[in-house]
Amino acid sequence: MGRARCCQAMSGWGPHRKEPRLRGARVAVLALLLTVASADAAPDIELGRYLAQECVTCHRGATSASTIPNIHGMAESDFIQMIKAYREKRIDNAVMQNIAGRLKDDEIEALAAYFFMTRP
User: Fold this and answer.
1) Which among 12, 67, 87, 106 could bridge 21 via Cys, Cβ 3.0 to 4.6 Å?
2) Tens of pLDDT along 35-93?
3) Out of 1.10.10.60, 3.90.1150.10, 1.10.760.10, 3.40.50.720, which CATH number does the structure's domain 45-117 have?
4) Backbone CA torsion sign across 67, 68, 73, 74
5) In whole angstroms, what is the distance from residue 96 CA to residue 71 CA?
6) What DSSP designation does 88 have?
7) Radius of gyration of the chain (CA)
Protein backbone atom coordinates (compact mmCIF):
# COMPACT_ATOMS: atom_id res chain seq x y z
CA MET A 1 0.00 0.00 0.00
CA GLY A 2 2.84 2.37 0.78
CA ARG A 3 4.33 1.88 -2.66
CA ALA A 4 1.02 2.68 -4.36
CA ARG A 5 0.85 6.05 -2.57
CA CYS A 6 4.43 6.83 -3.53
CA CYS A 7 3.76 6.07 -7.18
CA GLN A 8 0.58 8.12 -7.09
CA ALA A 9 2.41 11.11 -5.66
CA MET A 10 5.24 10.91 -8.18
CA SER A 11 3.07 10.41 -11.23
CA GLY A 12 0.56 13.12 -10.42
CA TRP A 13 -2.23 10.57 -10.20
CA GLY A 14 -4.06 10.73 -6.96
CA PRO A 15 -6.94 8.91 -5.40
CA HIS A 16 -9.22 11.86 -6.22
CA ARG A 17 -7.67 12.76 -9.60
CA LYS A 18 -8.64 11.14 -12.84
CA GLU A 19 -5.83 12.67 -14.91
CA PRO A 20 -2.20 13.58 -14.31
CA ARG A 21 -1.20 17.11 -13.52
CA LEU A 22 -0.62 18.83 -16.82
CA ARG A 23 -0.43 22.43 -15.72
CA GLY A 24 3.16 22.85 -16.86
CA ALA A 25 2.40 21.35 -20.24
CA ARG A 26 -0.65 23.55 -20.66
CA VAL A 27 1.38 26.66 -19.82
CA ALA A 28 4.07 25.62 -22.34
CA VAL A 29 1.51 25.07 -25.10
CA LEU A 30 -0.14 28.41 -24.36
CA ALA A 31 3.22 30.19 -24.49
CA LEU A 32 4.00 28.52 -27.82
CA LEU A 33 0.64 29.55 -29.27
CA LEU A 34 1.16 33.15 -28.18
CA THR A 35 4.61 33.19 -29.75
CA VAL A 36 3.26 31.86 -33.05
CA ALA A 37 0.37 34.34 -32.99
CA SER A 38 2.71 37.30 -32.42
CA ALA A 39 5.02 36.09 -35.19
CA ASP A 40 2.05 36.01 -37.57
CA ALA A 41 1.27 39.60 -36.68
CA ALA A 42 4.60 40.86 -38.03
CA PRO A 43 4.69 41.89 -41.69
CA ASP A 44 6.08 39.25 -44.05
CA ILE A 45 9.28 40.78 -45.43
CA GLU A 46 9.70 38.03 -48.04
CA LEU A 47 6.18 38.64 -49.31
CA GLY A 48 7.07 42.33 -49.52
CA ARG A 49 10.24 41.53 -51.48
CA TYR A 50 8.19 39.41 -53.90
CA LEU A 51 5.47 42.03 -54.37
CA ALA A 52 8.05 44.81 -54.74
CA GLN A 53 9.17 43.43 -58.11
CA GLU A 54 6.28 45.28 -59.73
CA CYS A 55 6.99 48.48 -57.79
CA VAL A 56 10.67 48.73 -58.66
CA THR A 57 9.84 48.74 -62.37
CA CYS A 58 9.06 52.44 -61.97
CA HIS A 59 10.38 53.37 -58.53
CA ARG A 60 13.92 51.96 -58.94
CA GLY A 61 15.23 55.07 -60.68
CA ALA A 62 13.20 57.57 -58.67
CA THR A 63 15.03 60.71 -57.64
CA SER A 64 14.02 63.89 -55.89
CA ALA A 65 13.73 65.56 -59.31
CA SER A 66 11.47 62.91 -60.88
CA THR A 67 7.69 62.78 -60.73
CA ILE A 68 7.90 59.20 -59.43
CA PRO A 69 8.65 59.28 -55.69
CA ASN A 70 11.47 57.37 -54.06
CA ILE A 71 9.80 54.83 -51.78
CA HIS A 72 13.01 53.16 -50.56
CA GLY A 73 13.47 53.86 -46.85
CA MET A 74 10.02 55.43 -46.51
CA ALA A 75 8.50 55.17 -43.04
CA GLU A 76 6.13 52.22 -42.87
CA SER A 77 3.20 54.27 -41.59
CA ASP A 78 3.62 56.85 -44.39
CA PHE A 79 3.83 54.12 -47.02
CA ILE A 80 0.71 52.38 -45.70
CA GLN A 81 -1.26 55.63 -45.60
CA MET A 82 -0.21 56.54 -49.12
CA ILE A 83 -1.03 53.16 -50.70
CA LYS A 84 -4.39 52.99 -48.93
CA ALA A 85 -5.17 56.50 -50.17
CA TYR A 86 -4.48 55.34 -53.75
CA ARG A 87 -6.56 52.22 -53.17
CA GLU A 88 -9.48 54.31 -51.89
CA LYS A 89 -8.99 56.77 -54.81
CA ARG A 90 -8.27 59.70 -52.48
CA ILE A 91 -5.08 60.40 -54.47
CA ASP A 92 -5.47 60.81 -58.21
CA ASN A 93 -3.21 58.55 -60.27
CA ALA A 94 -4.81 55.86 -62.42
CA VAL A 95 -1.72 53.63 -62.49
CA MET A 96 -1.25 53.65 -58.71
CA GLN A 97 -4.99 53.29 -58.09
CA ASN A 98 -4.98 50.17 -60.26
CA ILE A 99 -1.95 48.67 -58.50
CA ALA A 100 -3.06 49.60 -54.97
CA GLY A 101 -6.60 48.40 -55.70
CA ARG A 102 -5.31 44.83 -56.01
CA LEU A 103 -3.47 44.86 -52.68
CA LYS A 104 -4.85 43.53 -49.40
CA ASP A 105 -3.92 45.14 -46.08
CA ASP A 106 -1.36 42.45 -45.18
CA GLU A 107 0.31 42.87 -48.58
CA ILE A 108 0.52 46.64 -48.11
CA GLU A 109 2.08 46.10 -44.68
CA ALA A 110 4.58 43.62 -46.15
CA LEU A 111 5.56 46.11 -48.86
CA ALA A 112 5.90 48.89 -46.30
CA ALA A 113 8.21 46.77 -44.14
CA TYR A 114 10.29 45.74 -47.15
CA PHE A 115 10.72 49.24 -48.58
CA PHE A 116 11.53 50.64 -45.13
CA MET A 117 14.43 48.16 -44.98
CA THR A 118 15.72 49.17 -48.41
CA ARG A 119 17.00 52.59 -47.46
CA PRO A 120 19.02 54.24 -50.21
Assistant:
1) 12
2) 554 455 688 999 999 999 999 999 987 777 788 889 999 999 999 999 999 999 999 99
3) 1.10.760.10
4) positive
5) 13
6) T
7) 26
